[in-house]
Design a protein that fits this description.
Order of helices and strands: HHHHHHHHEEEEEEE
Mean pLDDT: 79
Number of helices: 8
Structural class: alpha+beta
Number of strands: 7
Length: 288
């Protein structure tokens, strides 16, 4: 075989090898694409099923809420409460749901639970005038005298803990961004508008921080749900009683010990009461 023939043969062999390798790479690429496409199809199907299940679950919760309202309108308060509790399990807490539960307990003359659910509804929607009015009416009807809140307390009760925290963090973020931009480009954000904006952010941050501190204290608030609960000097059944607390009264929960809670009553007295006699205003997710 001559030099020209050998060169032609080598060139043809290399070309054939290149074609074979290219075909293999194409096959591998096709397989990878098929796998990726399959994974995307599976993921899309799982996502679609999850969305449909969530939607169906939410619709069932709304149905239970509506059925509860119908039962309430018919005066079937126990049945209404059963539907409302089912709605909570399916779609979680909401101010309107807790408010309706409070109304049902109020109609049943269940003092402690009526006050508890009004307080819970008000925690989620602090500025709701209907909740505030019904809570005040319930306290009046049940003979529960509450100390009037001062103007500054009413101001900081306009929002709950989450919203005060959002306000404080948002104001701090904008304040930091302004100074960051001024450090990068000293010529911008100067003059009276910039000073007004920074002062406003600082005031919002201070208000938000104070609101967080105020509302954080509400996390430990509880409502007595048993009538004439004994306030014990120690967390034991045999302990002597120092006072009694009427159901519907607000207490502050200091700590727990086995089946007892150390609480501070409305008159400033502290003592131990049984755990099942008090429910926290901010639910822990266990009982309702």
């Amino acid at each position: 075989m001559g030099t020209g023939g050998l060169g032609t043969w080598v060139s043809a062999s290399l070309q054939q090898l290149s074609i074979q390798m290219g075909a293999k790479e194409m096959n591998i690429l096709c397989v990878k694409r098929s796998k990726v496409l399959g994974l995307l199809v599976v993921a899309s199907a799982v996502l679609l099923i999850s969305v449909l299940c969530t939607s169906a679950w939410a619709v069932q919760g709304e149905d239970r809420f509506a059925l509860g309202n119908e039962a309430y309108a018919e005066g079937k308060y126990d049945e209404a409460l059963s539907f409302y509790k089912g709605a909570i399990k399916q779609k979680g807490y909401s101010a309107s749901l807790l408010y309706n539960m409070a109304n049902a307990y109020y109609q049943k003359k269940d003092v402690g639970l009526a006050i508890l659910y009004y307080e819970r509804a008000l925690y989620l929607d602090p500025g709701n005038a209907d909740i505030q009015a019904n809570l005040s009416l319930a306290r009046k009807d049940f003979g529960l005298i509450a100390e009037p809140a001062s103007d500054w307390q009413r101001f900081f009760n306009m929002l709950n803990l989450n919203w005060w925290a959002i306000l404080a963090s948002g104001a701090f973020g904008v304040f930091s961004l302004i100074y960051l931009l001024r450090g990068i480009r000293p010529g911008i954000l100067k003059g009276a508008p910039a000073r007004i904006l920074t002062t406003f952010c600082l005031l919002c941050f201070m208000a938000g921080g104070t609101g967080v501190a105020m509302q954080y204290r509400n996390i430990n608030r509880g409502v007595v749900i048993r009538d004439n609960v004994r306030l014990l000097v120690s967390p034991f059944d045999s302990a002597s009683s120092s006072a009694s607390i009427k159901d519907g009264k607000i207490v502050r929960i200091a700590k727990t010990y086995k089946g007892y809670l150390l609480v501070e009553g409305p008159n400033g007295k502290s003592g131990w009461i049984k755990r099942n006699a008090v429910e926290s205003v901010v639910p822990s997710g266990g009982r309702s």
